[in-house]
Amino acid sequence: MLSKRFAQSIIRGDFVNGARELQMFAIMDSASVARSLGTLPDVLAKHVIQNGPLSEVDLLSTYSRGKSFIRHAHALKPQRGALRCVVVFYRASKGWAVQSFTIDDRINEEIKD
Length: 113
Prior knowledge:
- The chain is α+β, with helices and mostly antiparallel strands.
- It contains four helices and four strands; from the N terminus they run αααββββα.
- The chain has a four-stranded antiparallel beta sheet with strand order 1-2-3-4.
- Helix 1 runs antiparallel to helix 2.
- It is globular and about 45 Å long.
- The chain starts with a helix and ends with a helix.
- The model has no long low-confidence stretch (mean pLDDT 86).
């Protein structure tokens, strides 16, 4: 599963190669992907300083909307204070493609009732 491999690449500190794989299937243009990746090292560094190194990936949710969208959310787990990694897939005319991806600290949105 592409979204899990991307999340695991972040855990390993190899998000550039993970993002390259994600980009091969992306609808997003290269500039948008580069902008998203450009902020990632700072976000991760601040989080690791506060919460410890990332060590594990946990699938939090999978949602499908209609026949065209699937959204996978993973927890990137350090010693405390997990991050959320969300990848949204779109069913294009030639198969599934990555619509968008985000990494943030809004984990509560995934675990609320």
